[in-house]
Amino acid sequence: MIYLLKHLGYAFISTIGFAFIFNTPKAALLRSGLAGAFGWAVYIVVNQVSGSVVLSTFMGSLCIGLVGEVFAILNKNPITVYIIPGIVPLVPGFGLYNTMLSLLENDYDGALLHGSQSVMIAIAIAGALTIALSVNSYRKRVFRRRSRLKI
User: Could you tell me where this protein is found in the cell (predicted)?
Assistant: First the structure.
């Protein structure tokens, strides 16, 4: 439990830090931090259950996309205000670093291992955000259709 709370705190702080760097409006800083911390919590839980980093990243990114969408609707901000900083804890920077380090050390098997996993994580992030944005697009289309029928 302490492990999860510590990780949530780190994810919250790092997300707020990147939101600050990306010039997120001050009113949205805490919500951006909450989106990142929630996504990281999902990542930790799914990773402990499944053992798959790629699946964990996909589920965490999907949750960040959906939470970001809810925050964007409630606060009338663009969704990017919440999902761009929220995704930062899930980006495979360490894997990319290990890929480059393995290449420099002429360890091509290690570079292939780390590089392929980093690419799969990046694809999982992109796929999850695409699904979350598609759900929002579908929701808007249904809402417009219903409002036209009521007129």
Answer: Cell membrane
